[in-house]
Amino acid sequence: MLKAEFVEEAVKHGGSTKREKRIKPKFKTGQKVRTRNLNPIGHTRLPRYVRGKLGVIHHDHGIFVFPDTNASGLGEKPQHVYSVRFEAKELWGAPGTGGGVIYIDLWDDYLEPALKRAKPKRVRK
Amino acid sequence: MSKDHHNAPESDVALRVKAIEALLTEKGLVDPLALDKLVDTYENKVGPKNGARVVARAWVDPAYKKRLLSNGTAAIAELGISGMQGEDMVVVENTPKVHNLIVCTLCSCYPWPTLGLPPVWYKSAPFRSRAVSDPRSVLKEFGLELDPKVEIRVWDSSAEVRYMVLPERPKGTENMSEPELAGLVTRDSMIGVTNVTLNSNSGSKA
Amino acid sequence: MPNLSDLVPAEMPAIADASRVFDAPWQARAFAVAVTMCQASCYTWDEFREHLMTEIAEHPDDTEYYHHWLSALEKLLAEKGLVAEKDLDAKTREFAKPK
After folding, report:
1. CB–CB contact A45 B106 (8 Å)
2. Of residues B104, B157, B189, B202, which has the active-site annotation?
3. Distance between CA atoms of C49 and C36, rounded to whole angstroms?
C-alpha cells in the first residue's frame, strides 16, 4: 500500500521500463523497415493504422521492457524501441496534408527489414 | 464481465468508484489519505507551468537548449522536474520549417511532470485519429494555419517515450525576463496545437 | 487501407476548455486509485494501459474517457483477484441505499 507520506516521492520518481542491457539493435538509423502485419490481440502497441507499412528508422530510443510479453506474464523480453518515420502518403494512400510526416515509437519485434523491390525485367518484343 | 458503465447515470458511476475505494481500503491496499494527496498533486502542483519553465530556460540559454534536445529527461530534471509518465522524455523543436504535434492514438499518454494531466480534447477519439491523418485541419481548428511549405511532424506516443514540443520564441520578447517568458508559454503550444504569441497567457494553473 | 472518411470524423470536444483537471470527484478518485495501486506494485502500468487501450477500442461511442478508465481498473482488479465483481456490486448497492 502506498502511504500518504510517500506519494510525493513516488510521483517524482516514477518507474521507467528502460533497461541497461547489452542487446544489439536489429536496425540502424536511416534503415528502411516494414511494420509487421500483426493481429491486434496481444500486440497492443502497434497502432492499427501502421500495419504492414514502409518507414525509415529515425532514432533508437534504447532498450525497454516489451509489454506484449511482460503484461501477460511471459517475461520482460527487453528490446530496442525506435522512432520510425512514415510519410502520410504511405499511411493514408492519399497525397496527405502536404508535408505531413508521422513518427511512431515501435519495438524491435514489430519491424522487419524492408525488402528491396526487384527491378522490373525489360521485355523485348 | 464487469458492469458496463458506458450508459450508466453519473451517480451510479460515482457510487461504483466509492465502492472500489472502500473495498480496497478495507483490505489495506489503499490509503485514502494517499489518494487525497495524489489528487491534490495533479490538481494543484503538477501542471504546464513546469513545462513553461523548461521552454523559457531553453529560449534564454542556448547550451541548455542543446542539452534539452539531446537528452530531454536529464535536462528537464535539472529544473527539478521529473517523475511518473516523464521517465523517458524527448523534446522536439519547432522551427520556421518544422512544426511538431504530439498525440497518443492508443489511449492518452502525455508527459505528466511537464504538462500535468491531459485536456479532454487530447483524449478524444477525433483528436487521436485526426492528429495523424489530417494534422493540418486539427491545427486550423485551434486557429493555427501554417504555410504549406512547413513540414508537420506528428509524434505518436505509442511506447514509453513521452514527448513535449519546444515552441518557437515569439518576436518582440527580446527584453523579457525568464519568468516573463515562461508566463507566455501555454500548455497547447507544448502539445503543438498552437504557437506561443506575445498575447498568449499561460494562465493561473499550476 | 483506411479511408480518411471512414475515420471518426468530427468535432473535438470543447477545445477552449477550462484548465480544470477532473470534471467530477469520482474521476479524481478513479485516477488516484489506479495510480496508487500501481505504485504499490499490485500491477504494472503496462497492465493497466493494456486494459485501458482495450476499453477505448471496444467502446468507440463512449466519449467519457473516465468510463474507459474505470472499466479498465475494475477488470484489472478482478483479474488480479483484488476486487471481485460480485463484492463490488454488493458494495455499490449498499452505498446506493438511502440513509
Report:
1. yes
2. B104
3. 14
Domains of chain B, earliest start first: 10-44 (no CATH), 47-191 (3.90.330.10)
Judge if pTM exceeds 0.90. yes
What 3-state class would DSSP assign to C27? helix
* Domains of chain A by residue range: 17-113
The highest-level CATH class for domain A17-113 is mainly beta
Q: Using a CB-CB distance cutoff of 8 angstroms, which residues of chain A are in contact with residue B96?
A: none
Mean pLDDT across chain B:
93
- Model pLDDT for residues B35-67, shown as the tens digit of each residue: 999 999 999 999 999 999 999 999 999 999 999
Q: Over pLDDT 70: what percentage of chain B?
A: 95
Is A118 in the C-facing interface, judged by CB distances under 8 Å?
no
Q: What is the DSSP string of A28-88?
A: -TT-EEEE----STT-TTS-GGGTT-EEEEEEEEEEE--HHHHTTTS----EEEEEEEEEH
pLDDT for A122 equals 60
pLDDT tens, position by position, C72-88: 999 999 999 999 999 99
Chain A closest CA to C93's CA: distance in Å? 26
DSSP 8-state assignment for residue C4 = G
